[in-house]
Write a structure and sequence with these properties.
The protein is mainly α. It contains 9 helices and no strands. It has 2 domains: 54 residues, lambda repressor-like DNA-binding domains (434 Repressor (Amino-terminal Domain)); 76 residues. The N and C termini lie close together (11 Å).
Length: 155
């Protein structure tokens, strides 16, 4: 269920969603953790989030460039994502992969930097890249603009 991703993309806390839907915070927490929700609860949440009940039952969270989230994204952030991913459909999985590769290679090169200054410089640059992409992931989660395909699920 994609309730958590939708809630986060709308910038709502669990408490705010509970208040808007008329449900208990604990109910929202249970549903987000994967527990089966009653149809009445789903209808209340769907009304509060202005989505269909069928949308809440989806396993993947898919957003395209025509969605409101992408439309309302500031122009500079759109450029930021396109330039950093070299694609117009950024996925969270690709950003996470870059963060992991950047950290592993950065720390490795920093260790080699004990023997060679050039390796230390390369390691620092790789770590900086990893932290840059970590910031991109945070912005992507904040604005809910990730693209998913059949083999990728949002976490």
């Amino acid at each position: 269920m994609i309730l958590k991703q939708i809630r986060i993309s709308r910038h709502f806390s669990q408490e705010q969603l509970a208040q808007m839907s008329g449900l208990n915070v604990r109910t929202i927490q249970r549903i987000e953790s994967g527990k089966k929700a009653s149809l009445e609860s789903l209808k209340c949440i769907a009304a509060a989030l202005d989505v269909d009940v069928t949308t809440l039952n989806q396993e993947k969270f898919m957003i395209d460039k025509k969605s409101d989230n992408w439309k309302h994204l500031p122009w500079l952030l759109k450029c930021w994502f396109v330039l950093n991913f070299l694609q117009t459909k950024p996925t969270r999985k690709s950003a996470t992969r870059i963060v992991v590769i950047g950290h592993v290679s950065g720390f490795s090169f920093c260790c080699l930097g004990l023997f060679n200054e050039a390796a230390l410089t390369g390691g620092i640059l790789m770590l900086a890249t990893a932290y840059l992409y970590h910031g991109l992931i945070w912005h992507g989660d904040q604005y809910g603009i990730w693209y998913d395909n059949e083999s990728t699920k949002s976490s």
